[in-house]
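Researcher: I'd like a structural prediction for the single chain below. Treat it as a standalone chain; there are no partners to consider.
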Amino acid sequence: MDKKNGFTIIEIMVVIVIMGILAAVGVPKLFGMIAKAKAAEVPTAAGVYVRLQDAFVHNDHGIGSWKDIGYAAPGDGKTNNFEYGDCVVAKKEIDKDAESFLGWSATNLSALNECSARSAWGIVIDPVAESTVNFTQVVSSQECASLTSNWPVGSVDASACSAGATQTAEPEPQQTTEPEPKETTTQTDDKETDDTEKEKKDKKDKKEKEDSSSQDIDCQALEEHKKTNNEDNHIYIPECGFYVPNGHAPKQYKKNNK
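Model: Treating it as a single chain, here is the predicted structure.
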């Protein structure tokens, strides 16, 4: 009579235990990676805001709203994971004696791993001199700080920030006049051509902003040149969370010396 081979109860139990251990270790890491991937849009969006606001400040325009500086948040202010807010209601002059204030915010719409829903990330603006401000990136909790590196925990009150979608530039009203019958087709064609060219230019400008802001920055290589303030023409690198001299700044952040 042939002997049949099979798994014993002990062997099956050992396999179950091993699978349980692997699941206990691997599942939390998987959830953590998913949460970090969802939060990755925040540093990129913040970097674009800081760069545009900094340029607006250095042109002696003061501190502007999203509409003033030409900033457009991801998803026109709201994505599947985050809602963005403009905390500068109207353009304001730079007062070096004024207290720092929140200029930009991002709030997660749902929990991201251990980071609870409606937590907030923010950019704090600190006026230090004429045509000079410092930008500080903060996040409301330690659980959320683990999702975005170089974002320390700080106070972020985004309740006063307006929804980003309401801050984008409104289209200019079209003047309606009754054209002469013979010129109707020509004027309509010219208007459609102008609108098409404007849309293409807006899309191209937006893509260039996103491409330039998404370039990888080697923060470790810049660490030896790290500065703590914006003196002597230092450049703020939002992906790293610190300033560096203009000569050591990445190409997309360098300023031309006048």
